[in-house]
Specification:
CATH superfamily of the largest domain: L-amino peptidase D-ALA esterase/amidase
Strand content: 15-25%
Number of helices: 11
Largest sheet: 7 strands, mixed
Strand order of the largest sheet: 9-16-11-15-12-13-14
Number of strands: 16
Mean pLDDT: 90
CATH architecture of the largest domain: 4-Layer Sandwich
Shape: globular
Structural class: alpha+beta
CATH class of the largest domain: Alpha Beta
């Protein structure tokens, strides 16, 4: 069961953006597995993609098409493979023919088993029904259609005011495993009715991703299909945001940040087999980069993660992870570690007042914070992660069964 996560209830439509979902029999039988998002003409779009060297074909085609101009449609399905480029382009062409637009106005995205070819005929056959089913209220249906090992759909809405006009930001994401930052670490689609120029829209997206999707890890694996998209329809009628110094940018950025952060945390809370939601708060670093190095060394340690699952406050495993994070000239006397309000390590060793019972009480909680003080400077970083359970192994061992 997800940790502290429930199905979304307050989802707001975004004027100028419509969605649909259908069962195309791509990977799952008896449930929707294909989603379509439509952006009204005149809107703008930005995206960030995986930095995995083995980019999936839909990622390559989506990046090419986005470079040619703003899209009208985003097509999201399961599967990719050795015929990927040809298949991805064929899917774009099929939808474009049904919609009456250029193939370059369709961005393809995939999720599911890496290396499986796309059933192009099924996607092409579903195009007409998807277009007919487009609705501003289609967020939840689309979020369910792109789920794989997710247990719940993930949709978040936020609001802000620009030029006295109410603006909505709504986003959805899928992700549960293969979660580790190297761009966005899953699929996420965020939309707003604000008017935002493309260059600023991309800057806002990259800033939000860096503080959200690039601060999570479930298992240290990054997919070949990762992408995060931000669309702006302009239907709110505000004076278009164009420059970072524009008065409305802080409020807009805060709304986008809020959506991305909550979606990112939802991915972790729904991590495969997760029973703990852990905040890693590393402070006192010389740079943000070394704080992140410490946080991710802890987050990716199987020994630490299995101790969290067992509720075993084995402080030596955490201290060892800090020590191998690659920091030069680390003064152990300056290092302290807390589990919530319980100090387990001070001056590089076991805290004098620490008891196993106090540590175990924290680790028994479904959510807790591991705070590491490095004593080297003023930088800090926060990362969200999970434990590693029996079910994680079971889910991934049986994923293709």
């Amino acid at each position: 069961m997800p940790v502290g996560l429930s199905a979304p209830t307050d989802v707001k439509a975004v004027a100028g953006v419509r969605l649909a979902a259908t069962a195309a029999g791509i990977r799952y039988r008896g449930r929707d597995d294909l989603a379509l998002l439509e952006l009204a003409p005149g809107g703008s779009c930005a995206a960030v993609f995986t930095r995995n060297a083995f980019r999936a074909a839909p990622v390559t085609v989506a990046a090419e098409h986005l470079a040619a101009g703003p899209p009208r449609y985003l097509l999201v399905n399961a599967g990719t493979g050795t015929r990927g480029l040809a298949d991805a382009r064929a899917c774009c062409a099929a939808l474009a023919a049904a919609a009456g637009c250029a193939p370059e106005q369709v961005l393809p995205f995939s999720t599911g088993v890496i290396g499986e070819p796309l059933p192009v005929a099924r996607l092409a056959g579903a195009a007409g029904g998807l277009l007919e089913g487009l609705s501003g209220d289609g967020w939840l249906a689309a979020a369910r259609a792109i789920m794989t090992t997710d247990t719940l759909p993930k949709v978040v809405s936020r609001h802000c005011t620009l030029d006295g006009r109410a603006v909505t930001v709504t986003g959805m994401a899928k992700g549960s495993g293969m979660i580790c930052p190297d761009m966005a670490t899953m699929l996420a689609f965020v939309a707003t009715d604000a008017a935002v120029e493309p260059t600023l829209l991309e800057a806002c997206l990259r800033a939000a991703v860096e503080r959200s999707f690039n601060r999570i890890s479930v298992d240290g694996d990054t997919s070949t299909n990762d992408a995060c998209v931000l669309m702006a329809s302009g239907a709110a009628g505000n004076e278009p945001l164009a420059f970072a110094a524009d008065p409305g940018v802080p409020a807009f950025q805060q709304a986008v940040d809020g959506v991305c952060r909550e979606l990112a945390q939802a991915v972790v809370r729904d991590g495969e087999g997760a029973t703990r939601f852990v905040t890693l708060d590393v402070r006192g670093g010389a740079t943000t980069e070394e704080c992140l190095a410490v946080a991710y060394t802890i987050a990716h340690s199987p020994l630490v993660k299995t101790a969290w699952f067992a509720g075993d406050p084995n402080w030596g495993r955490i201290l060892a992870a800090v020590g191998r994070a690659g920091l030069t000239a680390l003064d152990l006397d300056g290092v302290s570690i807390h589990l919530d309000d319980v100090c387990i390590v001070e001056a590089g060793g076991r805290a004098a007042a620490y008891t196993e019972a106090a540590g175990a009480a924290v680790f028994a909680r479904p959510e807790f914070t591991v705070r590491v003080e490095l004593g080297r400077g003023d930088a800090g970083a926060v990362v969200w992660t999970t434990d590693l359970s029996y079910d994680y192994v079971k889910i991934n061992a049986e994923y293709r069964s």
